[in-house]
Amino acid sequence: MTVTTRRTWVVTRPAARGSVVLALLGLALGGLTACSSDPVDPARAGTVVVSADLPFASLNGATAAGRAPGSVLVRGLVQSGFTTLAADGTVVPDESFGTVEKVSDAPLTVRYTIAPTARWSDGVPVTPADLLLEWAARSAQLDEIVPELDADGVVATTPDDVVVFGAASAALVRASAVPAVEGATVTVVYDSPVADWQVALDVNLPAHVVGRLALDPAAPPLPTGTPTVPAAAGTPAAGATSPGTGAATTPATDAPGTPTPTATDDADATDDSDAADASDATDDADATDEAAAWALAVTTAVQQQDRAALVPLSRVWRAAGRAGDVTADPTLTTTTGPYVLARVDASGVEAVRNAHYDGAAPAAYDRVQVRTDLDPLAQVDALAADEVDVAAPLSTTDVLAAAERLEAVALRTDGDAVLQLVVQESAGGVFDPAAHAAAADPAATATDLRRAFLASVPRDRVVAGAVQPLWARADVSDVVAAQVGPTGPAAAPGEQAEPGAPVTDDPLTVRVLTNTADPVRATALELLTAAAAEAGFDVVPVDADDPSQTLRTRPEDWDAALVPVAQEDLPVAAFVARWRSGGATNVTGHSDAALDAVLDALAAQADPQGAAESLAAASDALLAGGAALPVVRTPALTLAAVRDREQDPGLPVVTDVPVLSASLADLTSWWDWARTADG
């Protein structure tokens, strides 16, 4: 394995590690007397550069833009909270931030206790006001109108003189009473049980910042233009919403709390330092008092339902956290994690060490840059040139081949979202009972057709032909409830019907919707088309400019859809909404009274073990009814430079970087390699 060192000679890395003396001997003999060395940038060794085509859109995790994969990635780096969500849907607590306890089942009562170590990056403590603001935004109890949402789930234009946060949560809408505050605790009482209670409420935007931006007449307005950050395909753009009277002060280019050293005379420095410390202490106290006053204003507005304050608060909350420049929006630089944003632009974001973080997992590096301006092959080239330290390019055969040619690189592959085939049961298509009105039992006829079509899917061949070339360990997935997580509860094996003889004398046309720009889905569709023909189905690809929009808004255009299913921030509620009759995200029109009863019980199951069992039962019912079929997890690729501190001076050393799964609702755990445990 050959690498070019920072000097002009080329050595094999194993020899350099075991026989450095040979290189030194060469120098002594004069063979390399003319060698020169490149200057080493001290800052580079403390700066990790990550490349991923996942543009950042917003830090507001309660909005569609904030739930886009690039936003989830950045928020996982800069934001801490009471809990995080694992890939299998389990909840992981962070007691250095606080605790979440279920103190009663009847009614469901949840108590949040904020730890004294929970602080915002401007040094202000996290307070109950931060949770009250989020409850106000997510419970919809204070919204005066039901907001209109566009096709991407973004709040459309709303009147300026109404209270509308427009971010109703399926969990918190069941907590209609204003939470009770006592000291550092907040208690939420639910009207009915909620399965996702552990992750239903957490800190999001800083109440003291939002309060000032909304309620301080002296604050300039937030930017109203569309951010310059590019949106990825399928990622909602962070469109403009008119803010209220509030807005941003201009933060420093560097993160808050990051000092800029200056040269001084030693004697004068001592006196100046003492004076500066006293001045800083006074300034900090004043800033904390001011922040407390704005946080109290938010608390009062929520508790007293003060409309005059809630109108601008809701307006600013909708707009905050999505500006394209950190100097224009202080909510971008006020977070609770080990890093804090210092730059946001079209090339990506840069985060620096949070000097005020006092939690259990502080920053391991001085800076982390997330670049989103490189195509997949360019990411591989940048890694080879030491311009990038970690890359998560789209996995294709060309990209994987280029990555495998690199030296001194850790190459990891794994699975991401679960690719599922879902069947359209309404809108007059071939699997709609209404299309078989002449049959003795139209519903049974449609069910049999759905089951026969899904039974024709050659899952093993799809795995072998579409995914295993990119991820050798790929296998058939049985996870129907992928909203909970790609490794969540699986359906019982053996539920899929066996393919049989053709169902009719004449082939039945099935219009299949998928994104054929993705090579994995394109290959899967080819294999499906050939196998379905043997079972009497003529598969026709749906020509759609935007498959995701067609999936949601034009059910009459497709009969089946091959789609990757991502994890959701409220896993159980999302699964219920997708499969219950008339559910908010039920795009297939599936309706089953018996399944509805199971889903209703699941939505109210506050015990995690009981919820897992109900998820498995619901998954079995969906397979038996021919509603959906999981096929395989989509492949993911992550590359990390392998370096030695002595052999690679001036470059950061990264270790144990896992595969980046962009479909996860929470990527906090992916960043574990960029943190140190317990300070």
UniProtKB/TrEMBL annotation:
Residues 221-286, 485-505 are annotated as: Disordered. It comes from the Bacteria. Residues 225-264, 485-503 have a biased composition (Low complexity). Pfam families: SBP_bac_5. Residues 102-584 form the Solute-binding protein family domain. Residues 265-286 have a biased composition (Acidic residues). InterPro entries: SBP_5 (IPR039424), SBP_5_dom (IPR000914). PANTHER family: MONOACYL PHOSPHATIDYLINOSITOL TETRAMANNOSIDE-BINDING PROTEIN LPQW-RELATED, PERIPLASMIC BINDING COMPONENT OF ABC TRANSPORTER. This is Solute-binding protein family 5 domain-containing protein. It comes from Cellulomonas phragmiteti.
